[in-house]
Design goal:
Radius of gyration: 14 Å
Largest sheet: 7 strands, mixed
Strand content: over 45%
Distance between the termini: 40 Å
Number of helices: 0
Helix content: under 10%
Order of helices and strands: EEEEEEEEEEE
Structural class: mainly beta
Length: 119
């Protein structure tokens, strides 16, 4: 059974930091591109950051320079370090496992973790 379990969300003041974790099980983590998405109330889910199996990272313009995505293949875990948080970063953050290229495998979502940034 595949599971993506996020943790690390919470309430933080503007300017503060949080580190989200997503622990994966039931998938071959090391071959997967992993991503973080977020969804604010009343808004569509939006992409935040991606890290490939080779460690290449990409970020949405809204978080570039403030957020850092990383992975530890030995722990089957992807992280999102969030610094200089703003109230507009308030959302439910979701971990996403991209289908690996060349394999017959599907994508997976975590259950989400709430991040609330107070002004």
């Amino acid at each position: 059974q595949v599971q993506l379990v996020e943790s690390g969300g919470g309430l933080v003041q503007a300017g503060g930091s949080l580190r989200l974790s997503c622990a994966a099980s039931g998938i071959i983590f090391s071959i997967r591109t992993m991503a973080w998405y977020r969804q604010a109330p009343g808004q569509q889910r939006e992409w935040v950051a991606t890290i490939t199996d080779g460690g290449t990272t990409n970020y949405a313009d809204s978080v570039k320079g403030r957020f850092t995505i990383s992975r530890d293949n030995a722990k089957n875990t992807v992280y999102l370090q969030m610094n200089s948080l703003k109230p507009e970063d308030t959302a439910v953050y979701y971990c996403y496992a991209v289908p690996p290229v060349g394999y017959r495998a599907r994508d997976y979502w975590g259950q989400g973790t709430q991040v609330t940034v107070s002004s």
